[in-house]
Amino acid sequence: MLTDEAGHHIWGAGAWPTARSVAMRPDRLAANDGRPLVPAGLVETMDVVGSKIRVPGYDTIVSAIVRAFADVRVDTAHPFREPVSNADLLLVPYDFRLGVAAAAVYVRDVVERRLAALHPSTRRRRVFVIGHSMGGLVARYWLGPLGGAPDCAALLTLGTPYGGAPVALDKLVNGFRVGGHLFRGITDVMRSWPSIYDLLPRYRAVHVDGTAQYPYTLDLMAEQGFTEAVLRGLQTHTDTDAAWAHIVDTPDIIAAFSIGHPTPLKGVVVDGVLSVTKDSDPTLPNPGWAGDGTVPADCAIPHQLTDRRAWRQLPHRHLPMPSARVVVDTLRDFSAHDTSSMRGGDSLGEPWLGVDLEETYVEGDPVTVSGLLMEVEPGERTSFWITATHRESKQRHRVKGDRNGSRFTAAFDGLPPGAYHVRISALHIPRVDDVHCDDMFGVVAL
Questions:
Q1: What percentage of residues in the chain have a pLDDT greater than 90?
Q2: What average pLDDT does range 246-258 have in this prediction?
Q3: Are both 316 and 364 inside the same structural domain?
Q4: Three-state SS for 26?
Q5: CB atoms within 10 A of CB 410
Q6: Cα separation, 388 vs 412, whole angstroms
């Protein structure tokens, strides 16, 4: 969560209030106006339909860790508060707008305040780091270029875009669009964030006249004046890779990722216009893997991590990843000094749902959801149901999916504006009975 210096919430205090605030006053999130924002806390779980359905936030991780281990003392870093000196679990929110390097400096300073009094032998490999999405890049920069590696035993990343994400390229070049409508104010603000340039694909994700190119080589980057910022973002990753190559005692890395959810994978430029699609990209090592809906699976594994025992495949889409049990399981492995249970490979070994769902829809347009049942063939009684629950009114909307073998499609018509929790359910599955996948989307009025 981000607040202004007076403590007023600007970002992260509930999905729909935040969306309305950004839509009405996007300038408050601009990174180039000199007005600082304060990282005040991590986004928390939201309840819908009373307490029957919960949209997981980062407090889900905290609760799971507190339940799994005895006497866990928790502290949240805040620039205007004194730290809890004996905390076991430290939550470090950061200003995501300012980019990986700036956030890593903040994280370094926060951790140093808590470890400075310890003898080097005591603080060595004392920290276990968990990073979701961009947070994994921030942690990796702190451990590498900023020299934090000696303090770290291991880094667990969840859906971290080591190789970037084409969705960031789409937002940068084509702007923030919903149903074809361009939100100019939000677009201008996003383009002021160094972070969006840090998240661009690092592989040849853009195809021009049949040739795959890196984003920073595109003519349209120069035409729109992005080249300098794009190269700065690329340098952040270059510096990180170079620093990690010289770490003598490298912390263990565990990379958690998802496959099977349709995900933006590549861009195609035709007549100077960029289109980003979910079509398979042959330039990726595993083009059929797709991803978590936001980050391609191949991009969520650092290229140096060739040991598959350190790969953790999850069934979750990008946003709910922090609720995965892999966090507590991995902490237990390390606290017991036994990593033999670390599971690699390409298969979860149990049924799950790969889901295609947009983040935002325009009021009046159908909200379409589609997907595929993985790892098991459906039975004769298998059916697919999608339930969307309005965040504020708690009104529930439920439709049955049209089934075609293991695939399904469904659509909601006439959903009112707001933020929605969505649960996709496959019922009466052989071996396990029911399988669910949870996520969120928004409907906006233009």
A1: 65
A2: 94
A3: no
A4: helix
A5: 20
A6: 9
Is residue 71 domain-shared with residue 105, that is, in the same domain? yes
The closest alpha carbon to 410, from 418, 428, 422, 392, belongs to 422
Number of domains in the chain: 2
Sorted by sequence, the CB contacts under 8 Å of residue 102 that are 6+ apart come out as 95, 194
CB 149 within 8 A of CB 124: no
CB atoms within 10 A of CB 7: 9
42 & 160 share domain? yes
**Nearest 5°: CA angle at 200, between 195 and 205?**
175
What is the Cα–Cα distance from 79 to 66, expressed in whole angstroms?
24
pLDDT of residue 61: 86
pLDDT, position 51: 36
* pLDDT above 90: residue 265: yes
Whether residues 157 and 115 fall in one domain: yes
| CA-based radius of gyration for the chain | 22
Q: Give the domain extent around 24.
A: 1-348
Residues 6+ apart with CB under 8 A from 273: none
- Only one residue has tokens 């702007």, namely 175
Return the residue matching tokens 């970037």: 164
Domain boundary pick from 307, 324, 348: 348
Kind of pairing, strands 38-39 and 2-3?
A: antiparallel
User: Of how many residues is the chain composed?
Assistant: 446
Same domain, 224 and 372: no
Beta strand 252-258 with 152-158 is parallel
* pLDDT above 50: residue 431: yes
The alpha helices in 264-404, defined as continuous H runs, are 326-335
pLDDT digits (tens, 9 = 90+) for 295-353: 999 999 999 899 999 999 999 999 989 888 899 999 988 877 544 444 444 445 688 89
- Lowest mean pLDDT segment, chosen from 136-150, 286-300, 332-346: 332-346
How high is the mean pLDDT of the chain?
88
